[in-house]
Structures
1.
Amino acid sequence: MSTYSYSKTARNMTLIVPVLLMSALFIWAIYELFSGNDQAIYKLIVYTMPFLLLSSFIGLHNPSAVVVTKESITFSGFGRSHVYTWEEAGSIRIRKYNYVGKTLIRLGKPKVLGGRYWITNEMNGYEDLLNYLEKKSEKGE
């Protein structure tokens, strides 16, 4: 079993700060609308931000830890976990965005709230995790 996770500072900057910024933006847009400022941008923020916040918590698109065993892979964050056996995971697709230091991991068939996970190069063991998943995807295991 291998566990890959962020240091406390990296976790805060990668996961917590964006959620706080989205929450602040949402509150600011509500305030502006109640203040009589009826611009379309505030309406757009109020309509879209709850979905983005919800997907951050339920979808776990940015997990704080990844646990890999011979039987399964688990993505965890915000007190929730998504567990996939290797059979459930099916095909594994990895897309690296080196210029921003992020990698998208897609497991199996596309779903709205799962199966897509972003990890950054700040994760402890980042390269080892990617190498393992690339080998898994090549073997079709």
Note: The first helix runs from residue 8 to 34.
2.
Amino acid sequence: MVLPVKGKLKMFGGGRNWIILVFSLLLAFFMWSIMKLSANYSSYVRYRLTVTTDIPGRKNIAESGDVLVIGAKSTGFRIIQNLQDKEALTLLVEGVDHKHLHKYGQEGDMFYLIPDNIRQKIQDALGADIKVETLATDTLFFIFPEQGGRKVPVEPKSIITYGKQHMPYSKLLLKPDSVFIYGDAGVISGIDRVYTQAIRNKNVSGSISGIVELAPMDGVRFSVEEVFYSQEIGRYVENTVKVPVTIGDAPSYANVAVIPQEVTIRYRQQFGKSVSLSPQDFAVEVGYDEIMLKDVVKPRAVKVPEGILEYEIEPKFVECVL
């Protein structure tokens, strides 16, 4: 009675050993597979190239009609992933110089590209996991449709505050100050300018410069995506001078009284380059034709000496009595 029980216990213990053995073998095989697939192998991978470029007057992005076959060294994982895909994977190669894209035929929108001419860009797009060894495809073809284009000015959007006793010596300058825009004719026909992204500077006490992107517009492509900006900024000196108001283009018989007869011009000059100015250096007038239409008019400076950065007239309006 005792022996059969012992025999069953022995068989049961042997079953556990078999399970452990099978599990160990599977684990070893899994680890071996991971190690092997992590190693690098030479193989062929397939990609359909999408390139961005800068061909004047044409769409800036297109996908190759043919597949690019690359002889590459990569991990087993990447090779298996590429082989399992029925369709070739898409590879985006950005910033291809238009000199590498050649017109195919005299007419039409087809261009061809020699992949070996942009080998480094292809390598950069693939990343460090895949090392390009050979490019088995010698030519790729792309369709770049024509697009309407026109040249428009660029206007800066700026939020700049200046430090105490500091101001701009010049306007905010852009280079280039105009760009070509491309897109459907119905879209770009209504665009007369483009804008930069906001240029932000706070409490500026010296000249500024930098690069700023253009604000994107739906359905519109720019010939450049960013522009250089600069502005000369420095300290200023502020002074005032009283100047008489005269009547411009008044006939000899005109008898007009201006109240007040003098206005104050508050002006700013560059620090270190300021000079003493007199009323004779300025001229302020109101137009006779304007006086005939209304009694209160805005005087304007018709003579301002060089070197004045900014000025304002006080009061802003004068009364004219015929």
Note: Helices lie at 2-38, 76-84, 119-126, 185-188, 288-293.
3.
Amino acid sequence: MANAATAPTSRRKGVLIAAAVLLAAAAAVAAVLVLTTRDPADNTPRAHAVRACADATRFEAAVKSNAKIDVVDKHLNRARAEAHKAEVGNSLYVGLASGMEALRVAIDRNDGQAARVGIDVVRTECGYVKRG
């Protein structure tokens, strides 16, 4: 009698495990499809510049809210990386990348003048990006 009672429970566990494995496999396939079918427009210099400006906005908000340096650095480093990709693709974005570098110098050297220059340049360049 004990075997008859545990057999359905054991079978249910097997079905649940198989379902979990299939679900994980489906999620992995979906992730690969999403990553490989990304819109080519996402890799244009302008798209990189737009993302750089979005990260610059997050950076500025983190600085204003006195966030931890790790958070501030994360946003600035992402902004710099996106600005660099934009600059490599189109020299129109050299100013944006330079402004990001000025902000990096400002943080690394605690340089107020570099911060003012970087902020002004990034705001100006992001204004062009938003309009363009």
Note: The longest helix spans residues 2-36.
4.
Amino acid sequence: MNETKPGDWKWILGGIALIIVLFLGVKLSFWGLEQAIPQDHSSSVPNTSAAQSAPEGTEAPSFCIHCGKELPELFEWGQFCPYCGEQNLNR
């Protein structure tokens, strides 16, 4: 009853080969995308010199003018509130 047919091993080996080929194809596709669209990982760190500067003579807000929550110390006018998402413009 538990007879193995000679073709059974071909199906198993064919399935394993298919999995390997598909895996390598996906890897090759992602490698090709990486070559076509290079990622600049150094720009993910914000540069403090590129930050917006507050106008002379005005203080940065301590609280959001829209939701009233306390803002971080480095917050400046014109930036968006991290809590409500509204832009705090100097009024």
Note: The radius of gyration is 29 Å.
